[in-house]
Design brief:
heterodimer, A: alpha+beta, Immunoglobulin-like, 45% helix, elongated, B: 164 residues, alpha+beta, 2 domains, 4-stranded antiparallel β-sheet, 4 helices, 6 strands
Chain lengths: 130, 164
């Protein structure tokens, strides 16, 4: 009776250890793929490339649901998550970071605005640089 | 008794294999997400397209092409080569060179070069840590049906933010 009990306990410990191992691995993968610095870089470059392809006058919608989710968790002001100064795009999803900046070569006046209706996207307005 | 010992050894091997697999996954994920996204291929393509659209529209060469020069090209074509103040970059991360040639004789009629000319020297090296370059040619005519060939060479460095 005692032997059967110890076999069962060993198996349970074995399964628990395996599951723990897999869960830690999955958490690592999710933390890496959905991390704020990765998102900041991805969207800063994406927005810069979009501005480079654009012509005045244009409005471009960008679905940024995943980045907005992170910014909300980090208590970041969503109106300040994307800043465009001159020809430099800065995406900042954490209040304590400097964000990620990338420049575009298209000499236009670009502005990024948070869509308060859907709360899942930003829209870029491209106008001629005066 | 032996069976129990064998099972324990099996579970040790099992965890060793699990650890090796996890270490491999962690290494691959870290090396993939640790490197920046390289968008310079797209950027050089867009820069070339932008210059081409500026120089020729609807198959006709732009009317003021003879007035273009190194100082006026950026403003005329709506380009801005300023970059972010990082890694000691000094607004020298781009290069664009334009050659206007007579289509029939191949004679160079005009050359324009704007940006950092040193980038062209590194273009021969095909490595992520060097600038990404692109050369394109196009055929165009003017209103008097004279034929031209325009060569556009563009290069983008920004190595620190696109390759490691």
């Amino acid at each position: 009776m005692q032997k059967k009990g110890s076999i069962l306990a060993e198996n349970i410990i074995f399964i628990i250890l395996n599951l723990t191992f897999i869960i830690i691995l999955m958490l690592f993968l999710f933390s890496k793929t959905g991390a704020a610095p990765v998102m900041e870089e991805k969207y800063a470059k994406q927005i810069a490339m979009l501005v480079d392809t654009s012509e005045p006058v244009m409005t471009i919608d960008i679905n940024m649901e995943d980045a907005i989710e992170i910014a909300q968790k980090e208590n970041m002001n969503l109106n300040e998550a994307i800043a465009i100064n001159g020809n430099i795009v800065t995406v900042k999803l954490r209040p304590d970071s400097n964000g990620y900046s990338y420049s575009f070569f298209n000499d236009v006046d670009a502005k990024a605005n948070f869509d308060t209706k859907t709360r899942t996207k930003y829209y870029l307005t491209i106008t001629k640089n005066e | 008794m032996n069976k129990g010992g064998a099972e324990k050894i099996f579970s040790v091997y099992w965890f060793a294999i699990l650890f090796i697999v996890a270490a491999a996954i962690v290494y691959m994920v870290s090396s993939f997400y640790g490197k920046p996204y390289d968008v310079r291929d797209v950027e050089t393509g867009l820069l070339t397209d932008k210059a081409a659209t500026c120089l020729s529209l609807g198959g006709y060469i732009t009317g003021n092409w003879q007035a273009l020069n190194n100082n006026t090209f950026l403003a005329e074509c709506g380009l801005n080569f300023n970059v972010e103040d990082a890694y000691g970059w000094n607004d020298n991360q781009y290069l664009i060179e334009i050659e206007f040639l007579d289509f029939n004789s191949g004679l160079v009629l005009k050359e324009i070069s704007v940006g950092n000319p040193n980038l062209k020297l590194d273009c021969a090296v095909e490595d992520r840590n060097f600038p990404v370059c692109l050369e394109r040619e196009m055929y165009t005519i003017d209103k008097a049906d004279r034929q031209y060939k325009i060569k556009i060479f563009s290069a983008v460095r920004k190595t620190e933010k696109n390759a490691q």
